[in-house]
Amino acid sequence: MASLRSFLGAKQIKRRESASTPRGFMAVYVGENDQKKKRYVVPVSYLNQPLFQELLSKSEEEFGFDHPMGGLTIPCHESLFFTVTSQIR
Asked: What are the pLDDT digits (tens) for 2-57?
């Protein structure tokens, strides 16, 4: 029984670790309107990139500084987000 508890405890820790954001990265939530937002982890260095800053401007226009997801929410279609981030790399 003790080994089962330790197994379940290890599984819970792994879930928490996978939800954390590594150092040098930030979590953003991407999706349009009422669409379910998906969480992506991007390098902090993207903040200095003009293309990414355009996405941030769109976010500021829609949400100001009050993001409903609790994190940075970018109101665009996932395909646009992928296009922008692939051009930055």
From this structure: 443 343 333 332 323 456 889 999 999 898 876 788 999 999 999 999 999 999 89
Angle value at C-alpha 25, between 80 and 42, nearest 5 degrees? 10
Q: Which alpha helices (H) appear in 20-77, and where do they start and end?
A: 50-63
Q: Which value, to the nearest 10 degrees, does the dihedral of the CA atoms of residues 77, 81, 87, 89 take?
A: -160
What is the pTM (predicted TM-score) of this model? Answer: 0.68
Distance CA 71, CA 27 (A): 7
Instruction: Report residue 49: phi and psi, to 5°.
Output: -90, 130
